[in-house]
Amino acid sequence: MSDINTTLLQNMRRELANIKPSAIRSFNKEVSSIPGIIKLTLGEPDFDTPQHIKDAAKASIDNNHTHYPPTPGTDGLRAAAANFLNTKYNLNYKPTQILATVGATEAIWSSLYAITNPGDQVIVPTPIWPMYLSIVNGMGLKPILVNTEPNDFVLSAQMIEDTLAQHDHVKVVLLNFPSNPTGKTYSREAIEEIAAVLRDKEIFVVSDEIYSELTYGKTHTSVAEILPEQTILLNGVSKSHAMTGWRLGIVAAPEGIIDKIITVHQFTVTTVPYTTQDAGEEAFSNGIDDALPMREEYIKRANFVHEAMTKMGFRADKPEGAFYYFAKLPEWLDEDTATFAHNLAYEQAVALVDATPFGPGAEGYIRISYASSMEDLQEAMKRIQKYLDSRRK
């Protein structure tokens, strides 16, 4: 192997120095070798992709859909996705306003790249999925972190107003709800108040609503319903249809804006594979309500975890959506969250996430993904109790 040319290494993209490997995935990999480990780390549904969707993928191959599909997505997928969004969330998208992406991560990247220039400011409510911060920093944008913990982990219209009063180059407001990691979501009133602050300003809203089908007791209101002319809506099938490995995301945006995002997409990944798109078309059409039975099971798991964790002294609100439990360590426990997560994994074979990488407001919190089976969750709660009992002695 050739030696590294240190001069070339120093001349690589500067922003990459600010990006570190995912702490969550690194920890997940580290603990995977622990015998009997119960992993409550990743947002990975334990459900299988519905059979009718897998059958559609098989038919796609049998029909020789193995060539280049259209860059923005097939006509069938774009129509099905538009109908899904319009039917579920009272939106008004045309198929031509839809882009199929390689997962929601590419949707975030392509959207932000299309609408920003280096140095633009992006309002990022925290705690938030760390991937956002990596992408924003990697593009040379300037994240303005707004700690939402004082407002029950919801970005308020007043917080946005106060931030805009202090910064004059804001180009984007990022939203993610139901939220990873907090499990919080936004009421219709909160969305309307945010829209009132941003309306007619030269500011985009990039709204990641990938968990929109997994809301508990609340009707999901999309920002795109209230502020369609400024909103870039991100969605997909990973969480709603247990299709994380298929890598299919969706971007919906006004014409003109979506065209620019499609251009970035074309020169980044070219297109999404035909088989994935055909499976996605089936999911959005004949599987339009596939998430409902999964949601009912997630509600049961959320209630169980909340009851068990609060009895053990963790402080948290009951989740309102997604499949994450965001809790603060018991006050008596003299450990930081990184130490707690590490020791729990190696002593009791339960892996959960130290929430610190999710940004300001996440200090002292841990995140549990309850996208695991009820059997695993029940055993995990017993093991966490054993760990706490060992620390009381």
From TrEMBL:
Residues 37-384 form the Aminotransferase class I/classII large domain. GO terms for biological process: amino acid metabolic process. PROSITE patterns: AA_TRANSFER_CLASS_1. The keyword Membrane does not apply. Keywords: Aminotransferase, Pyridoxal phosphate, Transferase. PANTHER family: AMINOTRANSFERASE (PTHR46383:SF4), ASPARTATE AMINOTRANSFERASE (PTHR46383). This is Aminotransferase. It comes from Limosilactobacillus gastricus DSM 16045.
